[in-house]
Design brief:
With 343 residues, this protein is mostly helical. It has helices at 2-11, 16-27, 31-50, 53-59, 63-68, 70-74, 77-80, 84-89, 91-98, 102-107, 109-112, 116-121, 123-126, 130-135, 137-140, 147-153, 166-178, 189-199, 202-205, 209-212, 216-226, 230-233, 237-240, 251-255, 257-264, 282-292, 299-322, 326-342.
């Protein structure tokens, strides 16, 4: 009865932020226990801010905007609590950009939160595309998966008896996805960066955001299809990027991207030859070819190429850790000193 009441009230609310709050409460099995948890989290945050005046001072210029979105923010206080110091650090440059989308962000925060430290480090790239990223949230989130999850799902949606339709493949890929305060001990930026590189393919996709996001409307039908083949595509992404839009009408090429890389990837490195993809009918021919070439014949090649790429990435990561610039080390020392002052 209580949940029905909150659902009914949501329909009469003119404010988006209040609708998010009432909708979230209505979805919770025990609304009163949920509200109590969020209230406790809010009180804990308030007490932590009270003993850290520098954080409170940084928030002061933004109180009016925060208060306007407080109902939706309230729904995620227990999730947001560990990240508050980093969030306060980005209010000045990015709140104006993110604020119009804040209600939608809060609705999805349970799925965003595992990636939040990395996102906060790269808001300069991601914030301008906030609206588009939320519009295509469900098909984009699998791209932030841990590498182990991507590899575990790799090929499972394609190894089916008979010929799977593109819709069946897309639904299968998406189905795989939908499956205490330490404010003074926030991990250094470099640690967050390195950890994400070790765990996810997201850092390797970040340089292409400015090109890909404006074309999401065209590329969206391909995202679920190409996702299982991401480990095979990323090593060749710089060369493939100028030709991606040539294949928007041919989703079969995306569904068989691993096969195309295995058989034809070498051609990408022959001078001038990749420009053949700009010729009329060539993308159609390549797409048709992807359905004829047998996957079983190149499974070992695909595994070998993956292993080689992973080893190369590991070497680069180790080199970067060893050769960390002195300026970054100094920056980390300054951040540690600031954290000590806040204690």
């Amino acid at each position: 009865a209580t949940r029905r009441l909150f659902k009914m009230l949501r329909n009469f609310m003119p404010n988006d932020s209040m609708r998010v709050l009432l909708g979230r409460v209505a979805e919770t099995p025990d609304p009163w226990a949920y509200l109590l948890d969020q209230t406790r989290a809010g009180l804990s945050m308030a007490s932590n801010l009270a003993i850290r005046p520098r954080l409170t001072t940084s928030m002061m210029p933004h109180y009016s905007k925060i208060i306007a979105k407080l109902p939706s923010i309230y729904t995620r206080l227990s999730i947001l609590r560990p990240h508050i110091p980093r969030i306060i650090g980005i209010l000045d440059p990015y709140l104006d950009v993110v604020e119009p989308h804040l209600d939608r962000i809060m609705e999805r925060m349970d799925r965003i939160e595992p990636h939040l430290p990395y996102i906060l480090l790269h808001l300069d790239v991601l914030a301008p595309h906030c609206g588009k990223l939320l519009d295509y949230f469900d098909v984009l989130m699998p791209y932030a998966d841990d590498k182990e999850k991507v590899m575990a799902n790799l090929g499972s949606c394609y190894a089916r008896p008979g010929v799977a339709s593109l819709k069946e493949i897309e639904d299968c890929v998406l189905s795989h996805w939908t499956d205490s305060d330490k404010w003074d001990d926030q991990p250094p930026s470099n640690d967050v960066e390195m950890q994400k590189k070790d765990q996810s393919y997201l850092p390797r996709l970040l340089p292409y955001v400015d090109f890909l996001i404006p074309h999401l409307e065209e590329l969206a039908p391909h995202l679920s299809l190409v996702h299982p083949h991401l480990p095979h595509i990323l090593p060749h992404m710089d060369i493939l990027l100028p030709y991606i839009l040539r294949f928007v009408k041919y989703p079969r090429a995306s569904a068989n991207a691993d096969v195309l890389i295995a058989y034809l990837g070498w051609m990408l490195y022959v001078p001038v030859l990749p420009r053949v993809l700009n010729l009329p009918l060539v993308p159609r021919i390549v797409s048709k070819l992807s359905t004829w070439l047998p996957r079983w014949a190149v499974r070992r090649t695909l595994v070998r190429n993956l292993r080689r790429d992973e080893e190369e990435q590991e070497r680069r990561t180790k080199r970067k850790r060893i050769e960390m610039p002195d300026e970054e080390e100094e920056q980390e020392r300054e951040q540690t000193a600031k954290r000590n002052k806040l204690r």
